[in-house]
Amino acid sequence: MITDYRTKVLFLLFVLFVIFLGTFGTLITIPVLLLVIVVLSTFATTFYGSGWTPSSRQSIERILKEIRPKKGDIIYDLGSGDGRFVIAAAKQTNAKIIGLEIDFFKWLMSSLAIKIKGLGNAKIIRKNFFTYNFHDADIIFIYLPQPTVDRLQERLKKLRKGTLIVTNKIKCKSLKLTKELKPEKIYIYSTK
Q: Which of 118, 117, 63 is nearest to 85 (CA)?
């Protein structure tokens, strides 16, 4: 039994590649190739440190109710996925909402959703959050695996004083916890 997540992803890609080779030259070649590209794009983010696990609508509503962003605030969603937090925050506040997403298809999907909904205070940037400069943040939302959050903590500690960091189900061990929302397991931190 394969237990390592990355090994499973590589195995899936190998199987899709074999299927693609077996269908090469037939009418099904293009759909199989598109499937391989989508799967590759979606699972490639796991090699950067984050798979895709979307936040629930209830968690997002609770977070926005608790942090109460105001006009002029800059909010980042690190690893914004399909953009559900960015879209919800943009609909409910006048803050500037920026999602950072490296996956091309999730970036495209969420960017189109924002355009269709006419949300002028939101955008998704296709960048790696490990290298992107988000020093201007007033609030940062994170729903990423614990090892990824651990890698980010040194950068988060260097943000300007008073920046709120909100995590969904994941703790930032080196930051000062200011509030815990139960039963959702939402943690709010503030930089010193």
A: 63
CA distance 87 to 119: 8
Q: How many domains in the chain?
A: 2
**Quick check: helix, strand or coil at residue 1?**
coil
Model confidence, pTM: 0.78
Give the separation between CA 114 and CA 108, rounded to whole angstroms.
10
Judge if 154 and 84 occupy the same domain: yes
Same domain, 166 and 92: yes
Q: What is the bridge-based pairing of β-strands 96-100 and 176-181?
A: unpaired
Residue 52 and residue 41: Cα distance in Å, rounded? 11
pLDDT score, position 77: 97
Whether residue 125 sits in one domain with residue 179 = yes
